[in-house]
Amino acid sequence: MSELEAVKSVIGREIEVFENKFKTSMESRVPLLDIITRYIIKRKGKQMRPMFVFLSAKIFGEINETTYRAASLIELLHTATLVHDDVVDDSNERRGFFSINALWKNKIAVLVGDYLLSKGLLLALNNEEYTLLKIVSDAVKEMSEGELLQIEKARKLDIKEDIYYEIIRKKTASLIASCCACGTASITDNKEIIKKMHDFGTFIGIAFQIKDDLFDYEKSRETGKPNGIDIKEQKMTLPLIYMLNNCSYSEKKSAINIVKNYYNRPDKVSELINKVNNSGGIEYSVNKMNEYKTKALEILYSLPENEARKAMEILVNYTIDRKK
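Structure (tokenized):
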């Protein structure tokens, strides 16, 4: 049994119920919208966000309608941001499927994103789920700020480690934190426990993003060469930041020159990847990732011991051990 199958053995029935509720939450009287939303459902990923919601709830009590609304709200707002991101990035593919903008053009994609956002807001407001709405709205705000901060810093390529953590906390970790906080808030109104689970999700989200950074330096199964996608997109990731902070002035100048001017040249990207590998940046990043995982597990082990907590531990380990 794989890690995700083990997790789904604890909340599999809830995930099935959620899928139907999520489908219903996107329904429209406009035929074109229904065609597009059916396409969105068809290309769903591993469903890690609903898993974090349901496990966070089940650690503290029985899953209820508010829990299902929390999972749907997060998926609606997150899907809206992904649709808009593909337009901003001019991306034609996501998870092996054509993006909405690739199939229906930018104008429709932006309107679909707006529609999903409004459906999420109405789902919360119509059911007076104000706590959930506050948590998720804060996450969307943070995600937007994180993206803009990354764009601002990428222009100068002057990201220091503390700024890097601020970017990934906002961009990636805020959403996982909101999943854990919303799941918990669907069971209890204890602000201290909700905050604790928000912190737990933040630590997992940071570890998750560092793992993503490391994939850039691993050899691709198809080509046998490192991906270097982040370098090609001029993104400053933790292994590269470590290398830049621990090399000579001339090496730093050469590395920044590659990121700025030669990011489309495979030979130059490979040269930079080799420098990062030889700098100790990979080992440093792995250690940092494990530090955040340990912080998350410390919180987890302080919670009630039950099958949901055990499944959450499996999910935490999966975020660090996954192969893609």
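DSSP finds 14 helices and two strands in the chain. The longest helix spans residues 100-126.
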